[in-house]
Design brief:
This protein is of the alpha+beta class. The protein is 25% helix and 21% strand. The protein is built from three helices and six strands. It has helices spanning 20-32, 73-84, 113-126; strands spanning 11-13, 44-51, 56-60, 90-98, 131-134, 140-143. Strands 1-6-5-4-2-3 form a six-stranded mixed β-sheet. Helix 2 packs parallel to helix 3. The protein binds tetrahydrodeoxyuridine.
Amino acid sequence: MKDFNIIIPVKSFSCDELDEQRRHLVDLACEATSRSYSPYSHFRVGAAIELDNGEIVTGANQENVAYPSGTCAERSACFYAGAHYPDAHFVRIAIAARGTDGEFTAIPTAPCGACRQSLLEYEMLAGHDVEVILYGSEATYVIPSVRMLLPLAFTEF
Ligand code: THU
């Protein structure tokens, strides 16, 4: 028997420490929260994905009265990107969320497991790391790749 630990590297920034490109992506993710349709949870999530063709696509969570029929911000953005720019590769994604008080979460909001798995598919298609930026009003986390957010991922059958 062998024990091993899986450690993921996270850089924590204050917002003004981010470079202009990342700050811009975070701004677009924050703005996308205003297009969230979340009458049930009142939790507004926005995502912005930078593609290697220069485009940036955004998404927001879209809920449904039949709860499981809704989708998260990250998947609405990544499926939009796949549907509109099938030949482009993801470069990075920024995610932001506003809680029931309407304020951006102080602690970064991280993607759910299903979104991590979906994003991983596009990272594998890209053939390189896709950076993940998780915005919080008190700290913003930068993780070098999606696979680091999903250790021991299911990647083939
Ligand atoms: N949500 C996202 O948009 N992204 C996540 O990664 C986690 C949760 C949404 C789904 C639902 O509309 C609301 O947040 C509350 O769970």
